[in-house]
Amino acid sequence: MKFRLTATVAASALLLGLAPAAFADSAPAPAAVQAQQGIVVPPLGFARRVLPNGLEVYSARDANTANVTVQVWYKVGSKDDPAGRSGFAHLFEHLMFKATKNLPSESFDRLTEDVGGGNNAFTADDVTAYHETIPANHLQRLLFAEADRMGSLVVDEPTFVSERDVVKEEYRQRILASPYGRLFGLFVPETIYKDSPYRRPGIGSIEELEASSLDDVRRFHATYYRPDNAYLIVAGNFDQAQLDRWVDQYFTPLKNPTTAIPANNVVEPEPTGPKTVTYYAPNVPLPTAVIAWPAVKYADADRPALEVLDGILSTGESSRLYRSLVYDKQIATSIGSQPDFAQQAGNLSAYSIMADGHTAEEGVTALNEEIAKLRDQPVTAAELSEAQNELVANALRGRETVEGRAQTLGFSLINTGSAAAADQEVASIQAVTIADVQRVARKYLTPQRQSTILYLASDAANPPSVARTNVDAPVKVADLAPAGAPVTLLPEGQRAALPQPGPDVAPSTPAVADFRLANGLRVLVAPTSGVPLVSARLNISAGTASDPTGKAGVATLTSALLTQGTKTKSAPEIATQIEQLGAVIGASAGADFSSVYANSPANAFGQTVALMADLVKNPAFDGEELERQQAQTLDGLRVSLSQPGPVAGLAAARITYGAAPYGAPGSGTIQSVPTITPADVAAFHAARYRPANATLVFSGDITPADARALAQQAFGDWRGAGATPAAVANPAGAALPPRIVVINQPGAGQAAVAVAARSVSRTDADYFPLTLGNTLLGGGFSSRLNQEIRIKGGLSYGARSSLGVRANAGLFTASAQTKNESAVQVADLLLSEVGKLGTTRATEAELATRRATLIGGFSDSLETVDGLGSLVAGLAQYDLPMTDLAAYAGRVRAVTPEQVEAAFANHLPINRASLVIVGDGSLFLDALRAKHPNVEVINIDDLNLNSATLK
To answer: Whole-prediction pTM value?
Structure first.
């Protein structure tokens, strides 16, 4: 399922279980501005060739980047899972990262992360795609590796069992531990579709994963992973003739099996009538309503009109669902619609996560009213323009990087079989008319074709609903090709030699212009060439640590309210103008800084910055708008507090900082948020939002001269009254003794395990040694934590760590989610690996790969206007020189193993670390007490985030 983000403060936060953050990206409104004209979306520019074995190769050169992306899109997805083996394509995606006959297991991480690149993959209904972005001089090595795993993958029993366990943990994390995971991952697709294989969940079920065998896996590879069933896409900085030679060398020798690919072309029947289903699940903090209809496949001529309809319906705060259910009626805390168009069929669904005290039945009624309006009345010209501008601007953003351009092409090839369709997409969106929108609404969104879903909390009378299993499918295990002789890793001396990297292609950083306006506002400009996009970021030197005592959430609500009304514009008018410009404008608050940000096509950037400045200088802080934001924030907190991961994060901060300002939840608490008044946010804004306390960063397609003129025009008259308040003294407080805390959440789908400790400030002399060590510990798939917990143990979908630097002492965390029964085992591994860094010296070879990881991530950030702007703003926040941008790679390379060990021993010794576990304590508390008799147990209903003790 695809989740469209809405502009409500809490929308994506509710789906993901996060505390809400301020965001506005669009809003039917009384006032309108001239719709943006002249957005130019450059063509993708890929060349095509076909090898004799049927492999289609697409390539596009871009000399403006130091990177190259290599992607292989296989025409096999979850719809091809054999009967009784749901989740099989996704399981196989995991196995493709293991050994080949010439490459040991995990080599793809060595070839990507260890040289400063990255790799990943995804499985959808019709495709499994593998993508790597690497420094351009490593292109030949990746082509060799991709060909090797296409032709000679090694899958043995231990690897198969381990990765199957990892997928089970992914299932527990995404489906069972998330309050809405069952709804969107299981129940919605099985309700919408009758015969289509799309009705089965792509992640499968634990029972059918258990039923799969090693022979099944090998046969699946033999059946679908073949040259004539794949697209190879390469984009970036390379020589075309050399690329062609390498492709011929590595891919042309690959053979196709003699067996045909199993037929799989189910025609989904028309619904015979409406249906209504109620599902129950544990841990559902807010009821939800969903209405859905079967629609069209991606290549259908009506799909663009349905995309535009979807934009009008739910994209942004100007959308009809947001305006009606969230803003006007205030019965929902989050709304959205999900257009899901695939090869064989499609659907469109709309959902409403209800506000506290409102029912799913209310949501169904309100959703139906809005859909009826689309059928009965034409949309307005302004609504059509807004939706089209937003879709076209997003198409432009999708072309900002070589990876994005390749993915745009791959998606088009899978769904249409045509490369040209990707470039025709913009024209097809722009060609949609008002009549088209009403026509598709009347044709597809009818009551007779509708499925209605109510999703409610289970109880004694209504036990949890069980998703259907053993669902039939067009492909049977018997249809798969024979596995053939098992492939094994060759002895080292017999393996084909891995090609050596070519000469480095060094990333370049722009010169940053630095000046001040007469009012004291610092302005930084980082110009780039490329797609016509520009980003602006205004950083204010005050964040949640500056919240008044007992008023946690003031800074967050202040930032949220900036887009909710000015002295001359209402919240709906602001949202409408944002969408008409094809822009993104939002605000957020961190611990030390607040940020207002904007991104738009270059031709609309002047209007975008003017609007951004009006929001900053003239907020209304209307009482009704505050009440709306408070209600959404509280609902977001209720969702967060229903999940182990977010609870562990909130608790870790309190345990580490106690009653100090950094310890308070930045989003506020259930108790603090309702006490905040319009006077509180107005006072915070008046004291903290002022030019002498701010930095404005421009990045992208803009010159320093134009930026200076624009900054002066938009912000030159900005003034602050009175003296700037002093920064909060010692927001981290005194160091506290470590604690071991279990927050008992009966029935939790997983346990969240976190090690937390007081870290350092961004300006600390040991910042770079600690950053490099943290990357070795938990920064990436090949990090030590992920190796031990996921790859070797199969105990979690992923383990990670964060240095968490701030202006004062930061918050270091190392964390993973696992089944409740494994919580103590994962805690032991986390504590052990964190402790080793301060007591055992890392090897130079280990650090060399981690240096490349950091430098590669830095290089990736330079490729987008928002990424570049964030880097520049980050330096300015901590009063670091702009020369550090160009010096970054050298600073990372200079770190030694001795410095890493000493820094961790000094700042992060394991005897200062706390341990937090959130989960079903009945399944692990006895084992934990045996190792840690001093453990504190707090029941989730007794958790008090306002207190330093959590009690």
So the answer is: 0.89
